[in-house]
Write a structure and sequence with these properties.
Blueprint lengths: L1 H10 L15 E2 L2 E2 L7 H4 L8 H13 L5 E7 L5 E7 L7 H6 L4 E6 L7 H14 L10 E5 L4 H4 L3 E2 H4 L8 E2 L20 H13 L3 E8 L8 E5 L6 H23 L3 E3 L2 E2 L16 E2 L8 H6 L4 E8 L4 H21 L1 H16 L7 E7 L4 E12 L14 E15 L2 E7 L4 E5 L3 H9 L15 E12 L10 E10 L7 E5 L5 H8 L22 E9 L6
Parallel strand pairs: 5-6, 5-9, 9-14, 10-11, 13-17
Antiparallel strand pairs: 1-2, 3-4, 4-6, 7-8, 10-14, 12-13, 15-18, 16-17, 19-22, 19-23, 20-21, 20-23
Helix pairs in contact: 5-11, 9-11
Length: about 550
């Protein structure tokens, strides 16, 4: 595997040189890094990954060295573990108000949401150490919030890599994908059932980060890139999503190749797996991204009209290279955000102004599908050899095959974008029964303001959804059978029942409110069974749209 890995790196033009900023014996400014603590991966020559206790001990040791950072608590897990939240800036800040007073972008970086995907955890620990112990770096221009071990409970369920991460090239023992409640935390951002998710949403609301970065490891196709990436893929992310895809990420790709020696590309997989076709087939039909729905963290964060970036290290690379490519990617993000801070803040200021004052005419996508007009791009893939001997295996490689390290480039359709399939305007307000406490609790967790109507709604123009059909998924997913409704909105003169609460359409999280409350959204509260007792064909949906206020004003 070492030889194949070296051939792979040579074939795609990637250096395995350790960047200067990751060496333990260099000087950056007046502070010498030598002698600072090492991560578990560094100490074991990348044969092991950190336990929860290792991460806490590493942070303790940084504090013992009096390095300048602030340590706080993001929240606690099901099993009671404290999730450390680390704040780095120069000067130091302790509160969101202090951070905002600096007028700098706030970058929130999260690792280990899937605890078997370990390189983000190792890279982020090292980056916190290196940034805190050097001078003249990006901390003069940004505020960094680092969550090095998000799925702390899952991290402690150590099993052999062959069990917990079957397609990953080490380390030998890693944690499990879900948390202690067996929830996939990267499918939980809408329903918010896990304590980790609720803590994360509270931090989003408290700090209002300008940029969210989620560190993962892909376990898919044998491609030719050290790391792949994606912005929020939901079209409702609007300008921030487009700017990330069309401007930020292409520049990050150039810098990763030029400055760090790593080839990176848009996240995706080739169109078919081993079951459908011989993996030695060199004719690739296309490169496909994953999903646009906001149950995924980076897609969800885009609904807040902020920049979000998914990082996926290449699972078939050795751990050392995965850690170093992830480290370099996050470092380059911080540098680029520092340079473009004014532009980024201008984008979000426009969005905030637009929705805070009420945008009741622009259509916002609530259902989408993968584009039917892909771009033609050159994609690098590794040629796999069929050995015919299922007893000869390489880590993360299907039995009977081996990696050759030989790279080929092929032009193919690349499917990265999603197109709206159904869109709605944001109403003046929504009205829902106060008895729907589960829905109200979730809305508030998402930072959506819920209040009692301040005016009499009896003369307001209202619309109500009539359910034509209801489909429930037979297969359980994350403890739920997802629900899909179809029907139509109709103006109504029905007298409102008593005990209603209101969600105004002129608030910062209006797009998220629309996505969660519309009955035909592809990932809203209906999807996750919040309104189940009130749903049946022929019945009306319990949430009203307010199309005009009683006095005709907004």
């Amino acid at each position: 595997m070492v030889a194949a890995g070296a051939a792979l790196m040579s074939a795609i033009g990637c250096s395995h040189r350790v960047p200067d900023y990751m060496r333990a014996d260099v000087t950056d400014g007046p502070i010498v890094i030598r002698g600072l603590p090492r991560t578990s991966a560094e100490r074991t020559s990348y044969s092991e990954t950190s336990t929860y206790a290792d991460v806490i001990a590493f942070i303790d040791s940084l504090q013992a060295k009096n390095l300048p950072f602030v340590r706080q608590e993001l929240g606690r897990t099901t099993e009671g573990r404290v999730l450390p939240l680390l704040i780095l800036s120069r000067p130091l800040v302790h509160t969101p108000a202090e951070a905002r007073a600096l007028h700098r972008p706030i970058v929130y970086v999260q690792a280990n949401i899937h605890a078997g995907e370990v390189e983000g955890k190792e890279a982020l620990q090292a980056l916190v150490r290196d940034l805190a112990s050097t001078s003249h770096n990006v901390l003069d221009s940004i505020v960094l919030i680092a969550i090095p071990i998000y799925n702390a409970d899952g991290n402690e369920v150590f099993k052999p890599q062959a069990v917990n991460r079957t397609e990953q090239n080490g380390p030998e023992s890693v944690g499990q994908r879900p948390n202690a409640k067996m929830l996939d935390l990267n499918r939980d951002y809408v329903k918010a059932e896990a304590p980790e998710t609720r803590a994360s949403l509270a931090a989003f609301e408290k700090w209002n980060p300008d940029v969210f970065v989620d560190l993962h490891t892909t376990d898919g196709s044998f491609h030719g890139y050290a790391l792949t990436y994606a912005p929020s893929l939901n079209p409702a992310a609007r300008e921030a999503g487009a700017y990330t895809m069309d401007s930020l990420l292409p520049e990050l790709r150039r810098r990763m190749q030029r400055r760090d020696g790593f080839a990176v590309f848009d996240y995706g997989n080739f169109d078919s797996g081993y079951e459908e076709r011989d993996i030695t087939d060199t004719v690739k039909q296309g490169w496909y991204s994953y999903d646009h729905r906001p149950r995924f963290g980076t897609n969800y964060f885009g609904l807040r009209q902020r920049i979000s970036i998914l990082s996926e290290a290449y699972s078939h690379d050795p751990l050392e290279r995965r850690v170093k490519s992830t480290y370099a990617f996050v470092r380059e993000i911080l540098s680029l955000v520092a340079e473009r801070g004014a532009r980024i803040r201008a984008i979000e200021a426009r969005a905030d102004s637009q929705f805070a004052h009420g945008d009741f005419t622009t259509l916002v996508p609530i259902r989408s599908h993968l584009t039917t007009a892909p771009q033609q791009q050159s994609v690098v893939f590794e040629v796999m050899a069929h050995t015919g001997d299922s007893s000869l295996t390489q880590p993360g490689v299907p039995r009977g095959y081996r990696r050759t390290g030989a790279m080929r480039t092929q032009t193919m359709p690349v499917y990265l974008r999603f197109e709206p399939a159904l869109a709605r305007t944001i109403p003046r307000a929504w009205l829902l029964p106060a008895r729907d406490t589960a829905a109200i609790t979730l809305l508030r967790l998402h930072g959506i303001q819920v209040e009692h109507p301040s005016i009499n709604m009896t003369s307001a123009r209202l619309s109500q959804f009539v359910i034509d059909s209801l489909r429930t998924e037979p297969r359980e997913f994350q403890g739920h059978h997802e629900v899909h409704l179809s029907g139509s909105w109709r103006d109504t003169t029905t007298q409102l029942p008593g005990g209603m609460v209101m969600v105004r359409g002129d608030q910062l999280q209006a797009v998220a409110a629309l996505y969660l409350l519309d009955p035909e959204s592809d990932d809203g509260l209906v999807t996750w069974n919040v309104f189940d007792p009130e749903l049946a064909p022929g019945r009306t949906f319990p949430v009203f749209r307010v199309l005009s206020s009683p006095n005709g004003s907004r």
